[in-house]
């Protein structure tokens, strides 16, 4: 596998971090609106309100921008999961799983066009999970959740169970947001995703 295109450097000061965030936000909007072919660094810089030279300080080309968007997305998913598990009033496993699914659905619904482009057209730009700090954080947080409810779970191997839970969530959440079936209400889709997860985790009693 080819190595992924990387940023030139990481922003260290608050001002430069803010500029990089503005650039990535502009990239997300342009890519969602125009697709890969219609996206270039000049358009992104103009949308971000920065010079092309400032953009090139951090990103050598649009492929590096797209790679950074993938990692930014993973970090946002971790933040959504961590926040909802830390603040949810639900104490039951089902309640916490439902809160997590709802948060991920909401997070993906912000830029469905962008997610459609990233997930369907550019899987190459998604770093392998073992190389993604955000993916490691997501795995660790969900693994912790399962460990807290270990007596309720049917699977004994919690590392494997965490992997399966993440695959189910990612696949079904993407399908529900990126290609939503018009004949089903969003609440029904959410409930069915939760049922699928609980059925795996707890067997028939979980549903």
Helical content, roughly? 55-70%
Topology pattern, helix = H, strand = E: HHHHHHHHH
Unreliable spans: none
Instruction: Let me know the average pLDDT.
Output: 83
- The secondary structure category is mainly alpha
Supply the number of helical segments: 9
Compute the separation of the termini in Å: 40 Å
Oligomeric state of the chains? single chain
Number of DSSP-assigned strands: 0
Radius of gyration: 19 Å
Q: Largest sheet at a glance? A: none
What spatial form do the alpha-carbon principal axes imply? Answer: elongated
Strand content: under 5%
Outline:
With 207 residues, the protein is mainly alpha-helical. The protein is built from 9 helices and no strands.
Structure overview:
The chain has 207 residues and is mainly α. 69% of the residues lie in helices and 0% in strands. Helix 2 crosses helix 3 and helix 5 packs across helix 9. The longest helix is centred in the middle third of the chain and has 26 residues. The protein is elongated and about 60 Å long. The model has no long low-confidence stretch (mean pLDDT 83).
Give the tags.
single chain; 207 residues; mainly alpha; 69% helix; 0% strand
Topology:
Layout: H1 14-34, H2 41-48, H3 52-58, H4 62-87, H5 93-109, H6 112-121, H7 133-148, H8 158-178, H9 186-202
Helix pairs in contact: 1-2, 1-6, 2-3, 4-5, 4-7, 5-8, 5-9, 7-8, 8-9
